[in-house]
Design a protein that fits this description.
18% strand, 464 residues, five-stranded mixed β-sheet, Aspartate Aminotransferase, domain 1, 13 helices, globular, alpha/beta, Aspartate Aminotransferase, domain 2
Length: 464
């Protein structure tokens, strides 16, 4: 095992400049000294010393289709040479065709007419969705959201994100959320199946509507004080927690009974991360609003947006100028998004991702059998979780996972004679979960490589 890595003289000059000139408010240094990266390709990134790292988090699932994907890169290059810029109040072909692709797909899957509205990223699109649901509910500013849910760090988005630390110093900006327990089965009541626990969580939520004195419902007017329920079908930052398949169907029944909209936040799980275009598709429900971002452009250009039912977003209800961003629906982003849809329509990405995810999950399950500190593994497609615990296999152990992350970034592990590092992401309620979001283009040998590197980190963690 190597000693603490020391930055090169060249890197140290840059780090000294960062310390003096860069705001720390837009970043987090998970390791010291921070790595400075110089190139990327496929599932790998290289630092300034040309040390390779296998990346199993792919920029928080923004780069679903691999770093420097040639086809998507070429779409961006071609657009640069034709129409690289145009103000968002003017039309261009890419905006219209990408909107059509998303809306027609939603019509085919959910049987609902709808429209697409673009913005520059996930948090901004959450803000736009809040405008849509507030407008549709006559200005209601209260929302339901989940414990463990994450929807962004802009003022409105942080108000419906369950971590108080993201809004502690800023107060609330109109929206407030009532945070409802998520069916996190591994840490739920013992003696219940996953499906039973999901039903119990829905029943506890439904109890809020039994009487006016539970604080959210007026039975005399049949009105709820809350406008919408914001859901991540698979919790992202919360630790890639996967609910039982009956959960959202039962939850949506309660919402429909009481006129509450369901907003599906697909920013992290959208675009085939779970083997479907939208992760909500796994659960046989019709969302009222879908919010998307990240992998739409494979991380090449900031572009996100929302799809909403026609009744919520048609021009009579949500007129021109309801929101605006200078760079919304920019032609570089829509060109890459269109190419992404064409690419995924040519290959059965759903089957491919599910097969790779099954293979990866089986490898994690094998590690779980051999390392008691792995308390839980689970996955849906290539959204996978590995929960690191104490020797009892249950008590959260953040310190050990932090150690594993730091060891992975040393770049000193060896597999088949090749020196490598491993990039992992940390999530979960207790920050003890490895949230695995590898490239959807990852090869089976690269999955094997990732499992071998994880095994080396687990050995280091248990023998230190």
């Amino acid at each position: 095992m190597s000693d603490i890595r020391i930055a090169t003289a060249e890197d140290q000059i840059l780090l000294d400049k960062e310390a003096k000139y860069c705001s720390y408010g837009d970043t987090v240094h998970y390791i010291e000294p921070p790595r400075i990266f110089s190139r990327c390709e496929g599932s790998f990134v290289w630092d300034t010393e040309d040390q390779a790292y296998l990346d199993l988090q792919m920029w928080y699932s923004a780069v679903n289709f691999g770093y420097a994907n040639p086809r998507l890169n070429n779409a961006l290059k071609q657009q640069i040479d034709t129409l690289p810029q145009i103000a968002s109040q003017y039309l261009h072909k890419g905006k219209i065709e990408l909107s059509e692709m998303i809306a027609v797909d939603a019509k085919n899957k959910f049987g609902l007419d709808g429209r697409v509205h673009f913005n520059v990223g996930g948090s901004q699109s959450i803000e736009d969705s809040l405008k849509v649901v507030r407008n549709a509910s006559n200005g209601k500013s209260l929302m339901f959201a989940f414990e463990g849910g994450y929807h962004g760090r802009t003022l409105g988005a942080s108000s419906i994100t369950s971590s108080f630390r993201y809004r502690r110093r800023y107060g609330h900006f109109g929206e407030r959320a009532n945070f409802i327990p998520f069916p996190y089965h591994f840490r739920g009541p013992k003696g219940m199946t996953k499906e039973e626990y999901g039903s119990q969580c829905v029943q506890q939520f439904a109890r809020l509507f039994e009487t006016e004195y539970n604080g959210v419902w007026d039975p005399k007017t049949n009105q709820c004080e809350y406008a919408a329920f914001y859901v991540e079908p698979i919790q992202g930052t919360g630790g890639y927690v996967i609910p039982p398949m009956n959960f959202y169907r039962e939850l949506k029944h309660v919402l429909d009974q009481h006129g509450i909209l369901m907003v599906s936040d697909e920013i992290q799980m959208g675009f085939y991360r779970t083997g479907k275009l939208w992760s909500i598709e796994h659960f046989d429900v019709q969302p009222d609003v879908i919010v998307f971002g990240k992998a739409l452009t494979n991380g090449l250009n900031p572009l996100g947006g929302i799809w909403a039912r026609e009744e919520l977003i048609n021009p009579k209800i949500f007129p021109p100028g309801s929101t605006h961003s200078t760079f919304a629906s920019n032609p570089l982003g829509t060109a890459v998004g269109l190419e992404m849809f064409k690419m995924t329509n040519e290959v059965d990405y759903g089957a491919m991702v599910m097969a790779k995810g099954k293979y990866f999950l089986e490898g994690l399950q094998d590690l779980q059998k051999r390392f008691p500190i792995i308390g839980d593994v689970d996955g849906l497609g290539l959204a996978l979780r590995c929960e690191i615990c104490g020797p009892d296999g249950f008590t959260p152990d953040k310190a050990t996972l932090d150690y594993m992350v730091e060891e992975g970034m040393k770049g000193d592990m060896v597999v088949d004679g090749q020196k490598l590092g491993l990039i992992l992401d940390v999530g979960g309620y207790y920050k003890n979960v490895i949230t695995l979001a590898p490239s959807l283009e990852i090869s089976y040998p690269e999955i094997d490589l990732g499992l071998k590197l994880l095994e080396q980190l687990l050995v280091r963690a248990t023998t230190r």
